[in-house]
Amino acid sequence: MLLYSQKTDLWIERSRLVGMLLGCVTYGIFFLLSVQSCLALMRRPQHGGKIANNRPALVFYVIITFTLRTLSISANAKYTEMIWIDLRNAPGGPLTLIEDEMAYPINIVALSTGHIQEWFMQALLLHRCFAIWNWAKCVTIPMITFYLVMIGLSVYIQVEASTGIAFYDINIEPAYLGIQVGLNVIYTILVAYRLLDMRRKMKELVDQYDSRLYDTLVLIIVESVMAYTIFAIVFIVAFAMHLNGITTICFLSIGQVQGIAQLIIIIRVATGRSYAHGYWSTRPAGVPTTVAFAEEEPTDDHIARL
User: Fold this and answer.
1) Which one of 17, 170, 223, 226 is most buried, counting C-beta atoms within 10 A?
2) SS (H, E, C) the chain
3) Residue 226 pLDDT more than 90?
4) More confident residue, 198 or 116
């Protein structure tokens, strides 16, 4: 009988299992929000909302990101099963399987589908930002440049991973993650600034303008992006410091966390819950019901693009 010596690092092995369990929890939330988003987008908009023209694109976004995330989490779940069941007698044991995971095609599928989902999520962020800024070149050109760099790094990482290199040895990964977080932070700053600036202009144009709409939208955006940003920063720091256990825990959930943040915004806008409580019942007569972001003066049309 041939016996293999097995390496042991219980912290790494437990981290993989905990990360997969956490990933399943966040996927469950992501699944429920995806269903709610589709249902909300298929209903008639409340309060005269103007998202009807964007509905097909948003439904496509929800379906494609859900499909990609499902493929990614399924591949990770299958490999977790392989680590402790199917390949439990492999040379080196579970620890070697965890460290050399990119030597297995199923993990390339998990990584690739996760990255492609990220492309769609960032594209939605960019579209919102550009619409609110009325497609100003000073915003679109830098943001598109960052986006293309992110895709380039993403492709490079996937090519590196396909060679069987250990995930933690892909040195470009922190740069890729940094650009992801940077895009989210810049998006939040740009959108929040634009909304607050439009609130100021509306108050100048309308004496009794109720600014709660803007305040609520800024709060929604900051709240949604904040959770993902904190989660991603922990991931980047852990990866840079080679804290493989923490990296594993974060890695298996990071795609779901960002997807959840995006879906929360879609649901709240589609159902009219992006507006402050009581706004529609207490709004003074003659005050605009929605707001737009034009170059000259605010008129009536862009909130739905959030």
Assistant:
1) 170
2) CCCCCECCCHHHHHHHHHHHHHHHHHHHHHHHHHHHHHHHHHCCCHHHCCCHHHHHHHHHHHHHHHHHHHHHHHHHHHHHHHHHHHCCCCCEHHHHHHHCHHHCHHHHHHHHHHHHHHHHHHHHHHHHHHHHCCCCHHHHHHHHHHHHHHHHHHHHHHHHHHCCCCHHHCCCHHHHHHHHHHHHHHHHHHHHHHHHHHHHHHHHHCCCCCCHHHHHHHHHHHHHHHHHHHHHHHHHHHHHCCCHHHHHHHHCCHHHHHHHHHHHHHHHHHCCCCCCCCHHHHCCCCCCCCCCCCCCCCCCCCHHHC
3) no
4) 116
The topology (CATH level 3) of 10-277 is Rhopdopsin 7-helix transmembrane proteins (1.20.1070)
Tokens of 187: 């998006």
Find, among 93, 191, 83, 177, the residue nearest to 134 by Cα: 191
Query: pTM of the prediction?
Result: 0.80
Q: How many residues does the chain have?
A: 306
In whole angstroms, what is the distance from residue 179 CA to residue 264 CA? 22
How far apart are the C-alpha atoms of 46 and 275, rounded to whole Å?
11
Going from N- to C-terminal start, the domains of the chain cover 10-277
Residue 300: phi, psi to the nearest 5?
-160, 40
Q: Which amino acid appears at position 68 of this protein? A: L
CA–chain centroid gap for 199, Å, is 27
Residue 139 has which token pair? 């915003």
Query: What is the sign of the dihedral through the CA atoms of 134, 184, 274 and 206?
Result: negative
Which tokens belong to 273? 């819950």
